[in-house]
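Protocol step 4 of 5: obtain the predicted structure for the target chain.
Materials: sequence only (see below). No template structures provided, no constraints applied. The aim of this step is simply to have a reference model before the mutagenesis design in step 5. Sequence pasted as it appears in the construct record:
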Amino acid sequence: MSSPALRMPEVPVLVGRTGELDALIDAVLHPPAVALVEGEAGIGKTRLIHEAVRNPAVRDRVILLGSCHPLREPFPYGPVFDLLRQLGDDPAELIDRHPSNARGSALKPARTLNPVCGALRPYLPELAAMLPPAPEPLHDPRASRHRLFRAVRALLEAVGPTVMVVEDLHWSDDGTRDLLRFLVADPPPELSVVLSYRREDLAAPGLPLGSAYRSGPDVTAVLIPLYPLGLHEVRCLCAGIRGGGEVVGEFAAEVHRRTAGIPFVVEEVVRALPEPAAGAEQDPELAALAEMAVPALLQEASAEQMSRLSPAAVAAVRAASVLQTPSEEDVIAAVMQAPSVGAAASARAGAAGADPAAAIGEALDAHVLYEWDDRYGFRHALAQQAVYQSLPGQDRRRLHGQVVDVLQRRDPQPLRHLAHHARMAGRPALWRQYAEAAAAAAREMGDVALAVEVLEELLSDGRLGRDDRARIAVELSRDAVVGLSRTRVSGLLRSIVNDAQLPDGVRGEIRLNLGLLMSNQQGRYSEGRVDTELAVEELRDRPELAARGMAALAMPSWGDHPHHVYQRWIELAEESSDRAADPGVRIAVRANRLSLMMSAGDPDVWHQVDAMIEAAGPGAADGTTRQIARACCNFADTATVTGHYAEARRLREIGRRLAARCGASFFEGLVEGTSLRLDWYAGAWEGLADRARDTLDVVQGISGIAADAHLVLGFLASAAGEWDTAATELDAAGLADPANAPAPILAAAGGAKIRLLLARGAVDAARAEANRGIERIRRKAIWAWSGDLAPMAVRALVNGGQVGPAESFVAELADGIAGRDAPLAAAALHACRGIIAVARGQHTEAVAAFTDARAAYRDLDQPYMAARIEEAIYRCQLPAGDEEVAHGLLMLADRFAELGAVRDAARCRQALRSNRVTPPSRRGRRGYGDELSPREREVARMVATGHTNREIADVLYLSPRTVEQHVARVLRKLNVSSRSEVSLSDNDSLIPSAG
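Step 4 output (structure tokens):
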């Protein structure tokens, strides 16, 4: 389909991009596809994309072109909506582009479109005739956003074969990046998405969509980086720009030196040079090139272009530079009339009485301005900046003021633009007015990130009075604690709460939100807790907010305080909430009370939880339902920690269902970390690592959820024997900064870290880690959280010769969970007793304890831990040489392998070999079968001691190729994937080393 962007004046030839063009066309022709075109300013991203979509092989597809701009409106997703509007430009042309649609339009009729497409009606009135009726509005902005995303995807799917281009992604807003990430994660079958960006200007370095994403296995994905042109390519480009003919090598070399081979700058420099006289040598061009002020990218080239424009066109370009984004002709015309002084005065004088359309047309002909869908602006931001920076300061302020006067008459008013121009015009009161209005509009649209950005900019202005500063800080703190905020926000809020002249109630609210922000988002638990405690004191006259702070302090995952400290905080929260008028506050406090009870293994908590859930019946208010949905998400997390997996799944689903009822779909994100851990425990490991990484991409460091994902990745790496990866992930889960980690996650990560330290033979370090974990549990006195830590902690103490301290810890554990409903800790207690018995040489007692532990883990539906306990049973019995035991251990190795625990599988087979036990063959013996041959044992020993293949070949008088074959068989028979795993240790099992 046609697009104004396709009619942009361009260099007549594409130089030096054959491979990149072929790759892009190939990707577009194999949908679903995602192509990323990466390169610095002026490198030719736009030209490459336009060349690809003009290719005859691509012309049977609908082409939708959009771009991002450096200044965002409060209305998010603008670039995507702009390109979708093109679907209504020319239905007849769309018929030609999608001949398979016999109804005469690329879109299905409204009656056959997915009903969710109706959500686009308010945003795409141009397509109203094609879209279904608008659905009922949702109260929660996040639910509305998700439905909007689905609607965009459904509409694109209905169009058929489509190429969707979004350029300059580095200028995109958070909402646009979220929408594009949603699309590329699972694009419609016939959609090809092409995204271009400057890597150096991305908001998140290396992440064009704001966070990492993973395309599905059926998606064609390609990254196409563009680099500066070489000397030969610059010479060809110069020839193409000049209309053919020979270009002297010296001239091309000088152009290449001055432009660094950036195609856009080459074009601008060459076009700025005068045409050589007929028959003249090219030496005059070299002289002109040497004399001209060569741009630092575009400054001097822009000045040369501007010098060729009439005064009226200069005024139009300068007005466009102040407007910053492509603007309509009438807006540019109005800004051209601003009173000017200094260097711009002559331009205005020449513009007086001039036809704005003719002036803009002249700027278009000179390639200074470009047409973008009936709006006019610069091809590149650097070109805009070059013109803008050439204006005297007084003229810039006057022009910005004129823009404000023009935009104020718009309906609706572009609030974000107005705030920017009011600020640049030196009108602080008007700036604050429009900035606060822009933040409110963004908040209403669910774009909390934009609201935070606008208020953050306002709050950074030192001219704000104390009252305005405090009021804006309260708004910023409320938004920041809901959205994903940056470190700068906490710094601004910190500077404000330090103002001693603020009223306590105002300071308390800001400080409370600051404390929650640092604890929940930034992982700074210690600092956040101090702020929350101070906020509670400052909120003594605002009981509802005080109760909220006290209830947060009662959540035991924060800090390492004893249980009675959290108990006291929840009691204070209950007292304060009794004075609160808002019933939602009382429900929130009650939910945290039940979470605390569940953490401690209180057996009476479950019927109270059910009673709370019943309160969220069909007639419950949205506020009540929302609070109970949040509570169920927290309950599911706590139930997972204590081993109530069935209850955790039930509560998770109830929370999701209640969230859907009240439109709070964002709660699903809160339970994703819990879901990851539940699937780990259940042995549902297929695809789990990818899900955990995807979660990390989505949450972008939100501490609690990120800790869950890192923990599961650490668990998976440990099971695979990938110790370096495991250590990295476990440290990220919290071990690297235990003071700021969720306590239950810290205990689980500690258990896994002990295992990998033992496997590496670092017994002292393992014992030290065990003692740290034990001390944390002992201090907090929430023994129900010790399930993942206790067995490996006892294993480390025993292996370090500290059987007595291990027995003391086991006794404390038994006392701590006596009378408590803590099934995971109870199963761990049986395992600990078995480990102690082995250390005492009491193998009969050990088998009995391990048997009880295996039954407990099976009841929990923890297949991996049940299998590890079963291995411990077999290893107690293996020295007797029982063939049935050997067969059982071999079968267990197969179960480990099926689960994905390749390290455990290899260890079981190694145990059979170490004890010289040969299990019965299952397929009949062929040669050495699964056993290493004598030669393979020699190779294995040398691999284990670090010899290379060449060194092994030299010692054994073998060819390198033969050694390669032996090493491959060794790895296969030992069921390991790398040479470093050939020397296996039993240290990560549950059985202590001899002696």
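Step 4 remarks: The first helix runs from residue 18 to 28. The radius of gyration is 34 Å.
Proceed to step 5.
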